[in-house]
Amino acid sequence: MSEKEIKITKDDVQKSGYIDIIDNCDKKECYRYSTEFLKKGRELESSNPRTSEIYILLGRIASLNLNPESTLTPFSPMPSGPLESEPENFVQIFSSDHLDLMRHFVKEITDNELKARISDVLWIIDRNHKMAELAIYSYLESSKILEHPEHWTSCEKRIQRAFRLSNMLGKKSGHLEKVIKHIEDVLDKYNGEDPLFLSYKLMCMLIEANVGDPVKYSNLSEKCAIDAEKKNNFRRARAYWQTKAQWHKIQKDEIKERESNFNYANSYVKEAESRLKGKNGSYLVASTFLQKAIEAYRRISNTKDVVNKLHKKLIEYERESVNEMQRFSTDIDVTESVKNTIRNISDKSLLDALFALSLMVNSPKVEDLRKEVRELADKYVFQHIVSGVAVNKDGKVTARKASMFSNDPSEVEESIKQNMHQHAEFHRLIVAQSVIEPARHRINLDHNATLSDFMNIVNDNPFVPVGREHLFAQGLLSGLEGDYVIAAHILIPQIENTIRYILTQKGVVSSGIDSNGIQDERSLNSTLYTKEIEEVFGKDIVFDLQGLLVERVGANLRNRIAHGLMDYSSFFSIHVSYLWAITLRLCCWHIIVSKVKEDASS
Hints:
With 602 residues, the protein is mainly α. The chain has 29 helices and six strands. It is globular, with a radius of gyration of 27 Å.
């Protein structure tokens, strides 16, 4: 926000009538305040610039997006495509005069929601413990007003932020005790009768703080899990089987912990079976959950027999899913594809919308690309006779292009491959502009996605190694929100690690050793060209990943990012958008990937 010459005071704020706007809001939540504050500020801009600036200031503060899962950077501008500024620098939108003003009037604010927001912002800037204490108290009071068993996220976010702040101040401050008591009071109030995830989130905080009665809360978790399974809400059931296992782990009861993990894995089997029922029953969707069940069981010791039994069932499901995949496979019609995308995404749950998007993002077929290049070479001979170079925006040579009509067969093959990568770029452009971006924006309009939503996708996922779930989830969430800077920096290294992980599982050594006995992990520049990776993913997706990540005539994202060759605007390109969607596809639709591989080899 540009600093104006108008000097506003605490008295100006009190006389502005801002509290009347808050009183008239139907929901006592900052994002509701923000809309009304900014609207009022624009109305008064010419007639009363002093009061207008007050409303614009309050609107900017209220518009910040609260992400309590991040302890140190809990605020960022509301997601609406690429961010205008980096989240950690959000304080730059406030002038020093405005910060001084907030320090003077924050304690006199009677609305706890706004008081929590302003005191928390001041805590982040000043690290004044009094502001943190005020924020903790105000967040808890605000959470009481926003508390709702079904619309639970607003309440939980404020409790969680109070929890994080009290943790930062330390146990000796006494604030954590107050927050824990509030959490346990809410848990007692609902006794597992809340229909979604409020009790789960609250118990996760207790587990993180290592407080609470493990017997009491393991029983509560079991109650919630069984109730959720009866209602076919398997995602909720898994959440509570998970907390039950964690409570038993705290008790050091390995038998009950293992039993809870079994129930967790079996909920995937139950969900797979439920996805076959009704007019929308799908073997393709059921296969996805069966694969997750197999992965979850593999992470429990001595489950080989169960895994083998489920694997046989998975093969049956995959066989039945072939016709469904043929039904979903369509050619891209540029003029209608955006409308088709919106139709396929709309009126779906968040998870189903993400699955639908992943299904629409197909890698171009290698054989089609090769055929296309050959046909164009015959048609436009001169264009393909001479060799050439590729240059970047600074005029530096980044790659040398081979001639397709060389006497050297290896140069001809290299030229064909380079032209195939260039043709693949056109495919990505169409898919990004007509499928990925329209779908992404529609999903953001219809849903308020959180990290937990993506954790549901990446947990027990054979593409995501253990311990990397949060990283994949954060990368996918950032991409959905349009923050491709964060998405690219997280996802590309994780894809590289996954490739090594898969090679290691197949018995391939993914590291090299020098004369001094020092071992370095091989990068994507070599691992993406192994026959074993092509066997896993199929040649079409592997070729797509090569062009996106490491090929000099392609996007070469891995190397350009690793060496700092991309400026800020470069991240908001079709390449990073497409990479995000392909990563989502690999996480959501590993069943499809395996079928693509089978079809290509048959």
